[in-house]
Structures are given as structure tokens and as C-alpha cells.
Predict the structure.
Amino acid sequence: MDNKQAKRKKILSIVAPAYNESAGLDAFYSRLISSTKDLDLELEVIYVNDGSQDDTLELMSKQRSNDPRITIIDLSRNFGKEIALTAGLDHALGDAVVVIDTDLQDPPEVISEMVAKWLDGNDVVNAKRLKRRGESWFKKLTSYMYYRFLYQLSDIKIPKDTGDFRLLSRDALDALLKLREKHRYMKGLFAWVGYSQVEVTYERDERYAGDTKWGFWALVNLAFEGLTSFSVLPLRLASMVGVLSAFIALVFGTLIIIKKFLYGDPVAGYASLVVLITFIGGIQLLALGVIGEYLGRVFNETKNRPLYLVKDMQKSRYLSNQEDNKS
Ligand code: UDP
Ligand code: MG
């Protein structure tokens, strides 16, 4: 038995979340299979259907009927990519796991490079994008600035220009799965666990089909999520602005008093009063908003709801075998 276990081929799990991806899912599958077939590893594919309204689930089931290496996790509704990813990772059995988008923006061909780095003994292999094709200059620019901004602000070093596409060893994955917070900014969580991290680079392709699920506001929200999940700097900033404005008020007040005594100026102005009051009011509301943002997070974390609900699960042969062995 021991001998057999030592000889057992290592399993590579591919976790692929999909939300309304029916247009490209078959192309994804065939590219994934053809680009990993030469690896000396067993492949496990974990699809997470994140409440798709099109026939993504049917396509997955069809693929699975020909390929028992596929697990399908059908979530009860759309939970968003970060949670869908978590659901997939929770069920991965592999010795290593690769997280990849199903829209073919993360080229499956890079996986073999990642695996090579993993076999060299690295625990986390990040895929860093060199180029992003088919995205507007506005998205590229804001994303460029955001990653650098976040890098400066957050307490942990989140790799720049790196999406969710990466490989994790079993150790790194187990560490990651211990983090059960509700607000999941995956890029940050991946970085938080540490371990030996290396990079491979790739050019990000255009979406194979369909449209991005991230509208402008969804991205703004994600950006906030990243900031507030990994930094308390906004809170500190609020106090600093408070100190600063108190200081300005002190200087200004002193000036007025001096002017009054030296020149006998009448105390001037309704206008400056109004400006000052609204200015201070604005700053107070801003600070309150920042506090509220963090309070909201605390509120959400304390509710203790499960991260996601699984409506149905179609298990791969690995997963069914494992459960047979347990019982
Ligand atoms: N996705 C998901 N749930 C969502 C939104 C997206 O599972 O609520 C999946 C989507 O199917 C894709 C990946 O997450 O495989 C990345 O989404 P998208 O391509 O829309 O994001 P972008 O590449 O524009 O950042
Ligand atoms: Mg995409």
C-alpha cells in the first residue's frame, strides 16, 4: 500500500468558475485538455457554476458525461467570482491547484510552466500579465494605478498586475482555506498566506466570447474591497485630516485675533464662515463614512452565514472514490 501510494501520480486540480460562459466553455475545455495532456499528472477539473442563467450548466454536464475527471459545483445563485472560487478550492483534491477563468483570458498553455515551477519546489506560482489585449485604455490605466496604490497602502504586498490566475501547492491551499472571512478579496488572501512565491509572465488575451461581468461599479466596489480588507489606513487618514483641520483652524483663529488687535479690523465675513462650516461638515461626513465602511464589514462578518450554498454537485471519480474510502 505504501509503495503504491508513493507511486501514485500527483493530481493537479483546475478550479474554473463560470458565470454565463456557455459561448466559450467548450473551447475552454478543449484548450485546457490539449495544453495539459503532456503533463505527468492526473487532472481534476472543478467547474463552479455561479448561478448562470444560460446553459453553462448543461454544457458542463455534457463534458462531464465524457470525462469523469470533472466535478461540477452548482451554486444556489450567483455569489460572485471570489466566492465561487472559494467553493471550488474547498473541494479540490489535488496536490496542487490552478485557478483559471473560463473565458480563455488566462491562457491554459501557461499551466505547464506553472507546474514546472511548482515541481521545482515553489508553493505559489503567480501569473503576471505583461499585456492586456482587448481592454479599454481606461480600464488598463485605472487598473495600473490601482495596483500600485494598493501596493503602497496595504500591509501585505499584493503582487502588481496579477489577477487570480495562479497555482497553489497543497500546503498553500490548506493555509488559504483557513481564511473564512466573508469579504473575500482573493488576490489579497493569496498574498496573505505567504509561502515561497514566484512568477510566470503571460500576455492576457481578449475574452473568447461574451462580455466582462465586471461593470464599472463592480470594479469600483472590488477596489474598495481590496483597500478596506487589507488596510486600516483610511481610518488613520481620517484622524490625520481631523488633526490637520484643527491645526488650520487654530492658525486661522490666531490670525484673526492678531488682526483685530493690531488693525482693529472688524471680524470679517459671513462668506468665510459658510465655507468653513461646510468644509468641516464635509470632512466629518467623510470620516463617518470611512468608519461606517469598516463597521459594515464587522457587521457582515459577525452574521456567521455560510459563504455559499451548493444546490447540486456532480462529483468527479476522484471525489467519489475518496468518499467511498472514507465510509
Ligand atoms: N465569474 C463568476 N461569477 C461572477 C462573475 C464572473 O464566476 O459573478 C467568472 C467568469 O465566468 C470568468 C471569471 O469569473 O470565468 C472572470 O470574469 P470576467 O471575465 O467577467 O472578469 P474580467 O476578466 O473582465 O476581470
Ligand atoms: Mg475575463
